Amino acid sequence: MKSISKETLSKVLERHSMWAKTGEGEKANLSGANLSGANLYRANLYRANLSGANLSGADLRWADLSWADLSGANLSGANLSGANLYRANLYRANLSGANLSGADLRWADLSWADLSGADLSGAD
């Protein structure tokens, strides 16, 4: 699992946000990254590749993860309240103990995902 510094993560998110808005910049590829405990509050991760990433305990409140690839990601204990996970790929993701209250999970692929102990109150 590759570690990412806060500075590098900030640059990746900035370039990804530019890509998502204008087509300039670069789509984020954080597959296999160790982002445990990261502060990604309101982050724009639309269509980002986060497959196999460790996002355990991360703050992803109100983040845009629509169409993102989170297959096999570890999101245990992550705070995803209010997050946009529309059409996100969460195949085999670990969401145990995650806070998904108020999250948009419409059309998300949750096959084989671990949702044990997850808070899904008010999730769509």
Name the descriptors.
124 residues, little secondary structure, globular
**Roughly how much helix do the residues carry, as a percent range?**
10-25%
Write down how many β-strands occur, each being a DSSP E stretch of 2 or more residues.
Answer: 2
Distance from N terminus to C terminus (CA atoms, Å) equals 32 Å
Number of helices: 1
Share in β-strands: under 5%
The rough form would be described as: globular
- Kindly provide the radius of gyration, computed on alpha-carbon positions and rounded to a whole number of angstroms: 13 Å
Short summary:
The chain has 124 residues and is low in regular secondary structure. It has one helix and two strands. The mean pLDDT is 97.
SSE blueprint and pairings:
Layout: E1 2-3, H1 6-22, E2 33-34
Parallel strand pairs: 1-2
Walkthrough of the structure:
With 124 residues, this protein is mostly loops. Helix content is 14%, strand content 3%. The chain contains one helix and two strands; from the N terminus they run βαβ. The protein has one helix spanning 6-22; strands at residues 2-3, 33-34. The protein has a two-stranded parallel sheet. It is globular.
